[in-house]
Design brief:
Structural class: alpha+beta
Strand content: 5-15%
Protein name: Aminoglycoside phosphotransferase domain-containing protein
Number of helices: 17
Largest sheet: 8 strands, antiparallel
Distance between the termini: 27 Å
Radius of gyration: 24 Å
InterPro entries: AGP_Transferase, Kinase-like_dom_sf
Number of strands: 18
Shape: globular
């Protein structure tokens, strides 16, 4: 790059901002100060707009599919909301739908997966894997945890044109046949269970996989995130919420699981624990190009190989992500932290539960995934796509109770979190006493994990980018003072046999990324 061109790129206007798929536009200075891959994220904007255009052009197909799954005739009006009313999350776009006739008025949500956010271009089949796991979670909770209120799943379709519908929207013959199949399935004790969904062929096809769900929002039920900041200081509302979350955790844990993994929906309608543990961070990092560390059919009978594969996956992400470190010292600090986490991992695995049983957990549970009434009683749980059977050590009080990111829990925020954690645990223990007298209680495990510092190990390992920060802030101090640059330089040599070459490669990778970022702002592809 010539000196004059490099100088011109450095003069990118500070008030220019790039559009991002989620959240406000980002300035050049902010882009430099984050470890996210902003160059990649800006590409999602174009892909999202293209998907919106394609879906809007296929709105007649949407209507036909909705009537197909609902068992409705052509005389029924099916209104697809305009694009400005669509609700976009990190992985899906939710399209409000209203079905109306002389004797029917019903609101639905057509939830369409976004392939460009689900690693489909890197790992074909990822979209169907994600939807298959989510459908499996819905079916499992319907059958095994009826006390957990979730939206009714009317039907769904995969990207390869396989369509399935709940038996209640099918003919009497289909319902009777499904009942007979379930009876026989239980009689011969086949693995998993037979769900209430069966194949329902259709010639209609959308450009992505989808789910047709009940709309659970109403005047008396809305997302917790909409009122969280306003009422989080209200003790009565917090208690109601904590009771509801506690009951969710206890209900999901009521049926112990033999392996670490996710439920998968089969073409014959069966639901089995045969998919890799599809946690949210894994999908997000694979979408950025991190090579796969767990094959789709991989499940784990013990905790150690799962932890080893997760740590290996984060190492692969370290090597691939261009904005991971910015100079040699930063790189060696990262390598040292990762090495020490591998060495210490055995301290945070319960040997009495290493081979199970394992516990179902919502990996991405947050304030926008739960609906509450005015007093914060939980009215519905949504977004079950990251439900996994995981080690019991992974259970923790939700970090978002402080209103900040997991790597922001330090100092005053750390004290605030500890107060909220203790308040939650008191409620959780009371709820647990109401349902079990088990001496190996979940609350005891959660307290032990907190006291040992294991909570930070598990939160870091399951996060996108907080692992090294949580190690430095919460784990390292239990063994030593903060590592010196000399310590990090020495330890980093043992990260791999070619550690010196890795450091040089990562620094060069960052320099190339920085130049590309400057060019991106300079080219005028930004929006103000």
């Amino acid at each position: 790059m010539s000196a004059s061109l490099d100088a011109s790129l450095e003069l990118a206007q500070p008030d220019t901002a790039l559009e991002l798929p989620n959240g406000p536009p980002i300035t050049y200075d902010a882009a430099l100060n984050t470890d996210r891959n902003i160059v990649l994220e800006t590409q999602y904007v174009t892909a999202t707009k293209a998907l919106y255009r394609r879906l809007w052009a296929d709105r007649n197909i949407m209507s036909a599919l909705i009537k197909h799954h609902m068992g409705l005739g052509d005389q029924v009006d099916c209104t697809i909301a305009r694009q400005n009313q669509w609700i976009r999350g990190s992985f899906n776009v939710c399209i409000p739908v209203e079905v109306r006739s002389s004797d029917l008025c019903q609101k639905l949500i057509l939830r369409c997966a976004m392939p460009h956010k689900l690693a489909e271009s890197h790992n074909p089949g990822s979209v169907d894997e994600k939807v298959g796991c989510e459908v499996g979670a819905y079916a499992w909770i319907q059958e095994r945890c009826p006390d957990i209120r979730i939206p009714h799943l009317y039907g769904f379709g995969f990207s390869d044109q396989r369509h399935f519908t709940h038996e209640m929207q099918r003919s009497l013959f289909v319902r009777m046949w499904q009942g007979l199949r379930r009876w026989f399935h239980a009689l011969v004790r086949r693995p998993g269970f037979l769900s209430r969904y069966s194949m329902h062929a259709s010639n209609c096809r959308l450009p992505t996989a989808y789910m047709l769900l009940e709309h659970v929002g109403s005047e008396n039920s809305q997302m917790l995130s909409l009122t969280w900041n306003r009422y989080r200081g209200d003790a009565a509302r917090r208690k109601n919420l904590f009771q509801g979350i506690s009951r969710l955790i206890l209900s999901l844990s009521r049926v112990p699981q033999p392996r670490i993994g996710s439920f998968q929906f089969g073409d014959d309608g069966t639901v089995t624990l045969t998919n890799r543990p599809l946690v949210c961070s894994v999908m997000m990092l694979e979408n950025e190009g991190t090579p796969v560390a767990m094959q789709r059919e991989t499940t784990y009978a013990s905790t150690e190989p799962f932890v080893a594969d997760m740590l290996s996956f984060h190492d692969r992400r370290f090597l691939r992500h261009p904005n991971m470190v910015y100079d040699e010292e930063d790189c060696r600090a990262e390598m040292a932290a990762r090495l020490l986490l591998r060495m210490l991992a055995h301290r945070y695995i319960r040997h009495d539960r290493r081979n199970g049983p394992f516990v179902l957990q919502l990996d991405d549970f947050h304030a926008s995934n739960v609906f509450v009434d005015a007093e914060w009683n939980i009215t519905s749980l949504i977004d079950l796509e990251w439900l996994c059977a995981l080690p019991v050590e992974r259970l923790a009080v939700p970090y978002w109770l402080t209103g900040c990111a997991i790597d922001g829990i330090r100092g005053d925020r750390g004290e605030e979190y500890n107060r909220s954690r203790e308040e939650f645990m008191n409620v959780f223990e009371a709820e647990e006493r109401n349902v079990t007298a088990d001496v190996s209680s979940l609350s005891r495990t959660m307290r032990e994990t907190w006291e040992s510092g294991g909570v930070w190990f598990w939160q870091g390992m399951m996060s996108i980018n907080a692992m090294s920060t949580l190690f430095t802030d919460h784990i390292c101090s239990r063994f030593s003072t903060r590592l010196s640059p000399r310590d990090e330089q020495l330890l980093s040599r043992f990260w791999s046999e070619d550690a010196t070459e890795v450091v040089a490669s990562k620094v060069e990778q960052y320099n190339q990324y920085s130049a590309e970022l400057r060019s991106l702002f300079h080219r005028g592809t930004a929006t103000v």
